[in-house]
From TrEMBL:
Name the record gives this protein: 1,4-dihydroxy-2-naphthoate octaprenyltransferase
Localization (cell): Cell membrane; Membrane
Gene name of this polypeptide: menA
Organism: Cohaesibacter gelatinilyticus
Membrane topology summary: Multi-pass membrane protein
Assigned protein family: Belongs to the MenA family. Type 1 subfamily.
Length: 305
């Protein structure tokens, strides 16, 4: 695919270009679950291995960055990232500012960083962490590559729910405390729902181009109306986390009600009234911000009990 002329708003300088390439706004999706696991461990009074937090956070962000870069390189090679028709934020490969080979090498570098962190964490956490870490690295590559890329299938949201929710929170909690926690498992499931919602909005925005490129994402299979219903369900169910874990206490009801009101009045309402791709890009940011608000409100509720 021939590189296209960079638009006037392209980042200047190599640092700016690489910062844009790693998509820093997405890093909250990988860092948030680690923070949530620390909050749960702190409330339990069991952060025995608190000093592992920065290593866990670095490993999570490195895998996220590697996935982003590998995805960009793969889309550039396949021709899906056409800058002239792209609806989402510009990609450095499609703008011709970085080659697919450069981006792929950078992805491998970040996978190496994640692997080094992972080796250290395996010594601390044993084979369960080895299994989660290897699965994360394999899925980071398989997300955009191979004969059946996850990104081109209906299973992308399930992948995100698992690796940016359930496994991320429960695995991080295990490393920080030394034991598996039912609360961390359940909280990870609820916290992963907004992360999955980010992907369904992204695929809803790109569904026309994706379908033309041969992809069969969940948004394509569901269609526009059912995709909006599915997104609404993901965000609404996520707000029930405190209610579930708080067994219906007054503070848990208040926390869940606040989360539901935020979800309903901002991203959910915006999606049902979205008229163009620019509106959907705004909803992506709102959904990612909601996951952060979910963690903050959940943390406040947790320490108030």
């Amino acid at each position: 695919m021939a590189p296209q002329q960079a638009p006037n708003n392209a980042p200047s300088g190599m640092i700016g270009i690489w910062l844009a390439a790693i998509r820093p706004k997405t890093l909250l999706l990988s860092l948030g679950p680690v923070i949530l696991s620390a909050l749960i461990g702190g409330r339990e009074g069991s952060l025995t291995y608190w000093y592992l937090f920065p290593i866990i956070a670095l490993a999570a962000m490195a895998i996220q960055i590697a996935t982003n870069l590998w995805n960009d390189a793969a889309d550039s090679d396949s021709g899906l990232d056409d800058q002239t028709t792209r609806l989402g934020p510009a990609r450095m490969t499609s703008m011709g500012l970085l080659s697919a080979q450069q981006v792929r090498l950078a992805a491998l570098l970040f996978l190496a960083i994640a692997s080094l962190c992972g080796l250290f964490l395996v010594f601390a956490g044993g084979w369960p962490i080895l299994a989660i870490g290897l699965a994360g690295i394999i899925c980071a590559l398989a997300y955009s590559s191979g004969p059946y890329p996850i990104a081109a299938s209906p299973f992308g949201e399930a992948f995100v729910l698992a690796f940016f929710g359930l496994f991320a929170v429960a695995g991080s909690h295990y490393l920080l405390t030394g034991f598996w926690s039912q609360m961390a498992l359940v909280a990870g499931l609820y916290a992963g729902l907004p992360a999955a919602a980010v992907l369904i909005v992204n695929n809803h925005r790109d569904r026309i181009g994706d379908e033309q490129g041969g992809r069969r994402t969940l948004a394509i299979l569901l269609g526009p109306q059912a995709t909006k219903i599915f997104y609404t369900a993901l965000m609404s169910v996520s707000s029930l986390g405190p209610l579930h874990l708080g067994h219906g206490s007054v503070t848990a009801i208040a926390a869940s009600a606040l989360l539901f009101v935020i979800a309903l009045t901002l991203p959910i309402r915006s999606l049902w009234h979205a008229a163009d791709a620019q509106s959907l890009n705004k909803i992506l940011s709102q959904t990612a911000a909601f996951q952060l608000m979910w963690i903050v409100i959940f943390g406040i509720w947790l320490f108030s009990t």
